[in-house]
Every structure is written in C-alpha cells, then in structure tokens.
C-alpha cells in the first residue's frame, strides 16, 4: 500500500495564510493615501476660490477707482497735478481716507475734512484692495490690535510724548498753521486711529512699527477710548483745551467778578 507523504514545515509556511498585521498595515496605508489626496484637493480648491474672490475684489476696486479717483490720481494711480501718487500707500491709507469721508474731496483746501462717507464698506474694501495690489504698503490692522484692551497708562505716556502737541493731551484737537488743524479724536474708530498712525495723513508724521510698535499703538488707542468713555473727574472740562480755555474763563469770569465787586464796593461807599 503506497505511503502518503506528509507536508513538510516549509511547505506549510509557504502555503499558509497571510498575517493579520499585514492586512492592518495595508488598510492604514490606504486610509493615509486617500486622506492625503482629499486634503490636497480640498486645500487647492479653497485656495483657488480665495484667489478668485480676491481677484474679483481687485477688479471691482479698479473699476471704482477709474470712475471716482482717476481724475485726480491718474488712471494707474500714478498721480497728477491735482492729486498725489497712490502707489505704495497701502490699503490702510485708502481705508482711512475713504472710510472717514475725506476722499473724494469736494474742493481743494488746506486739508481734507471729514464728511459723510460716499462708499459702502464693500466698495471701500475693493478700492483698498486695488491700491494695495499696485505695490506693498501699510495693511489694514488686525482686529486684536483694535480691542482697546491694552495698557491705558502706557498709552497715555506715549500719547503725551508723540501726539499731544497737536491733538491736545485729551485728544480734543488743535489749530495748526496756514488753516490746517489736528482733528479731535473723540468718536474716531480704533481702526482709523491706527491707520492714521501708520500712514500719516495730512500734516501728521508716520509712526511705523520701528517708531511705535503695534502693541504701543494698541495702548494709545486704549488710552483714547478710556478718556472718551470716562467724564472729567474735576467737573466741567472746558472742552479739554487746556490753558487757553482755562485762561479765557479766568479772564472773563474771574477778572469780571473782581471788577464788578470793586464797582459795588465803590458805589456803597458813596
């Protein structure tokens, strides 16, 4: 009777089943590959959508610029005899000038004055995006720098050193030469205060990040908003115009009272 040959150990290993760990590894690799491909596709799609939206905003801003600003600033914002070049002024300058109604100007004068805003927020953003696309310049500040939650004491010191000589220590404003003036800062939004510091509109110097850091600008805004939201503890503030208004008050009422008292005493003695 023929003998049946038993399978050897080597043959058993070669014809045996695949290890469970190999299946787990294959599944993990498949999941990683699928997830990575999906992430790359999603990121690329989102980036393309953002770029398309940004380009659309710039295009809208270019149209608005050609219709409303090119007369003075030139079709390519290169400037004319009626207006300066805007190449390199950045989005912050456009947002400040247009967002406060200073631009477009109604007539030439010593400086542009605040008036009702003529563009919507979306249109202002589009104009700012177009000018910013022409050349690098100061950008619109981040919201965390505008929360007025900094150090009011440090901001007060910085404001007295850098700003009070024109704007008054309480931000009440003041007169300059040749019909120009430093405007009052009460009611001005934190964003526009910050943009004014980094762009230097009109006669104001530019305070870039090398002069006053973003955190210091936040402290200055904090101080101004503190002054605005807290009444004078000493009573009637006389417009916060300092020695001019105080001296005038004493001259009219103090000296007037002395003169009136002198006349009354003289009349009684007769």
TrEMBL record:
InterPro entries: bc1_cytC-su, Cyt_c-like_dom, Cyt_c-like_dom_sf, Cytochrome_c_Oxidase_Subunit
EC number of this enzyme: 7.1.1.8
Free-text description of this protein's post-translational modifications in UniProt: Binds 2 heme c groups covalently per subunit.
Domain Cytochrome c: 56-135, 150-228
Keywords: Cell membrane, Electron transport, Heme, Iron, Lyase, Membrane, Metal-binding, Repeat, Respiratory chain, Translocase, Transmembrane, Transmembrane helix, Transport
Catalytic activity of the protein: a quinol + 2 Fe(III)-[cytochrome c](out) = a quinone + 2 Fe(II)-[cytochrome c](out) + 2 H(+)(out)
Superkingdom as given in the UniProt entry: Bacteria
Subunit structure and binding partners: The cytochrome bc1 complex is composed of a cytochrome b (QcrB), the Rieske iron-sulfur protein (QcrA) and a diheme cytochrome c (QcrC) subunit.
A molecular function GO annotation: quinol-cytochrome-c reductase activity
UniProt: heme c 2 binding residues: 163, 166-167
TM ranges: 248-267
A Pfam family it matches: Cytochrome_CBB3
Name the UniProt record assigns to this protein: Cytochrome bc1 complex cytochrome c subunit
Residues holding heme c 1: 69, 72-73
Record membrane topology: Multi-pass membrane protein
Subcellular location: Cell membrane
Primary location: membrane
A Gene Ontology term for the protein's cellular component: plasma membrane
């Amino acid at each position: 009777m023929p003998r049946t040959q038993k399978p050897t150990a080597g043959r058993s290993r070669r014809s045996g089943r695949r290890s469970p760990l190999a299946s787990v590894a294959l599944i993990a690799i498949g999941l990683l590959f699928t997830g990575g491909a999906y992430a790359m596709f999603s990121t690329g799609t989102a980036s393309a959508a953002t770029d398309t939206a940004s380009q659309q905003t710039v295009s809208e801003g270019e149209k608005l610029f050609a219709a409303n600003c090119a007369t003075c600033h030139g079709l390519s914002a290169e400037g004319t005899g009626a207006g300066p070049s805007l190449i390199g002024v950045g989005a912050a300058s456009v947002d400040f000038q247009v967002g406060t109604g200073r631009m477009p100007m109604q007539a030439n004068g010593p400086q542009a004055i605040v008036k009702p805003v003529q563009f919507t927020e979306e249109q202002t953003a589009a104009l700012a995006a177009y000018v910013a696309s022409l050349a690098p310049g100061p950008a619109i500040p981040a919201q965390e720098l505008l929360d007025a939650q900094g150090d009011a004491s440090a901001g007060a010191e910085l404001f007295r050193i850098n700003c009070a000589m024109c704007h008054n220590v309480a931000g009440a404003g003041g007169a300059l030469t040749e019909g120009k003036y430093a405007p009052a800062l009460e009611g001005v939004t934190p964003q526009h205060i910050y943009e004014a510091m980094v762009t230097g509109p009109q006669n104001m110097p530019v305070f870039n990040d090398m002069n006053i850091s973003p955190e210091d600008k936040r402290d200055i805004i904090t101080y101004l908003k503190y002054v605005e939201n807290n009444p004078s503890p000493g009573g009637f503030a006389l417009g916060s115009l300092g020695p001019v208004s105080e001296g005038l008050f004493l001259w009219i009422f103090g000296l007037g009272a002395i003169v009136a008292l002198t006349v009354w005493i003289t009349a009684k003695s007769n």
